[in-house]
Write a structure and sequence with these properties.
alpha+beta; globular; six-stranded mixed beta sheet; seven-stranded mixed beta sheet
């Protein structure tokens, strides 16, 4: 997947499918800032929160490069496509699409404990100027055990199987995918500052070798396990990554 320049956003992205990219990396002289909403808000209103943040820093809408959502429960494949269509219309309305696809990375999961009553905005990322001598920063979009570009039940790795052995296989597959995206962005494990895992299945057996063992020095930052389900029924395991210097919490 070739990196594509965003003409106005001051970042580059790995193309994914129409509603979201596979990841983003800052352009020279810019950094990616990650923001967490302490109190998530309905995601439509969340775009107002994003715009307020961008305006406060003198950044254009095009600087938005990552969105993190939380949904009440996993969607069917058809329901996910319908949700994505509405989400994509928002991004198109903001003028963010590049050559017909979204450059914005995304993670969308369904918390198992205390789920929201409607889709909410949990976090977002944006680009802003920084010292040109500093290294690039990035966000790897969330992904589960589906091959790149595939959104069909037939593509699920070990579909219909949630045994410990199957979860280990799914976890290894997703780790491979994360690593390919990371390399595609020009990153490496030492530059990763956050590793997030989203599943309701135990991950203890995956930590020593599948996750931390492969993460190298990034293992020093640990792993955040969100007791959540991926956004589509039948997918059991999801991850995302980022490597940033600036983490903000608002709201």
């Amino acid at each position: 997947m070739p990196l594509t320049d965003h003409p106005l956003g001051d970042y580059r992205f790995l193309p994914g499918i129409a509603p979201y990219s596979c990841g983003v990396v800052s352009a020279p002289g810019f950094e990616v800032v990650h923001v967490t909403l302490h109190r998530p808000v309905p995601y439509l209103r969340g775009f107002d929160e994003i715009e307020r943040r961008l305006v406060s820093e003198g950044r254009p809408r095009a600087a938005l490069c990552g969105v993190e959502l939380r949904s009440p429960c996993p969607f069917s494949f058809e329901g996910f496509a319908e949700f994505n269509a509405g989400y994509a219309r928002i991004l198109e309305g903001w003028g963010l699409f590049v050559d017909g696809v979204s450059p914005v990375a995304r993670t969308n999961v369904a918390p198992e404990g205390g789920p929201p009553g409607e889709p909410v905005l949990y976090g977002f990322s944006y680009s802003r100027p920084c010292d040109p001598s500093l290294p690039p920063t990035f966000v790897v979009a969330g992904a589960g055990e589906l091959p790149e570009g595939v959104l069909a039940v037939e593509g699920i790795v070990r579909g219909g199987d949630a045994s410990p052995d199957a979860i280990a296989t799914k976890g290894a597959f997703v780790m491979d995918l994360m690593e390919r995206r990371l390399r595609g962005l020009g990153g490496d494990w030492p530059s990763v500052t956050a590793i997030d895992v989203y599943t309701v299945h135990p991950i203890g057996r995956l930590l020593p070798d599948v996750i931390l063992g492969r993460a190298g020095s990034a293992a020093a930052h640990g792993v955040r396990w969100f007791y959540s389900r991926p956004p589509i029924v039948g997918i059991e395991y999801e991850m995302d990554l980022r490597g940033v210097r600036t983490e903000l919490r608002i709201g």
